[in-house]
Hints:
341 residues; alpha/beta; Helicase, Ruva Protein, domain 3; 3 domains; 5 strands
Amino acid sequence: MQDLWTLKYRADALEGLLGNEHAVRTLSELVQSGTLPHLIFYGPDNSGKTTASLALVRQLYGDTWKNNFVYFNASDFFDQGKRYLVRDKRFVRFIGTDDPKKIYKSVIDIFKEIINEYAGIASIDADYKIIYVDNAESLRSDAQHALRRIMEKYSETCRFILSTTRPSKLISPLRSRGLQVFFTYVPDFLLKPHLERIALAEKLKLSGGALDAILYLAKGNVARAVQTLQLAALRADGAEITEEIVYEATMKGRDEIVDELLDAALAGEFSRGRQLIDKMIIEKGLSGTDILEGLSEALIDSGETDADVARYIIKISETDSRLTDAASERIQLEKLISTFS
């Protein structure tokens, strides 16, 4: 099985991170000072927040970093709920069953119990451990208040890094507990050499415009750029990667479920559309932005009239704007598909 290049070529030290110079400088200074506060990483999807956290703990703990780092995804807890809890082996001792129907505690109670226990266990070879909470905007208000109290209670033995695309969804008392560090997408003049290094390491043959096509599609998103390069390499199968192959690989990479969602929306099948949205968010792990981008691409290929495509794209753009401040991406997406028919 071929390695995912997004993981294979992920930076393992802060100085290896692309772009985000201010964030890298801030984190490097914290490592050198030996005093790490709670942190809040914020910025768009795939802007380097998780990569930065992993690089940070590697520099803090060296070879023992896995003993002192715990990762939780808030959207798994609160979007998937008990179905997720039974799949994660770490939680067996908390819930005592692999049947979600036999879990009688609420998800919020289980979340508090799990975080409280992990935070309360002191590191055996460091002053403190780090708990990374991804997609923190998915935490309900009561979960955020509980997390704030846990952060205060175990500040001597644990540091938290909260990662979010929408910091406005975090309660003020929680935001005030951490140093906020902003991440954003990478400019092309930094991303292109990164892709060239990967191409060289993988012995790829590229036409003159292939990388420019990838950069155009990625729009500064490092993960998307590397994924596109890998998809194109698989499609080329040893031949030269051209612009045409890049675009073909990208179109092929669009999940068919996006087209199903568009068909359901255009046909006015709201119930089916809701089921597809749930499947995309929960099973596929797609963000609201991913789904909107897929819908835009599917519309262009749909054969609808130019006027209708333009009208739907405007609706998608309005929804994309609302996602910035939305508490629930699902609600905004459901509202969008209800307006298509």
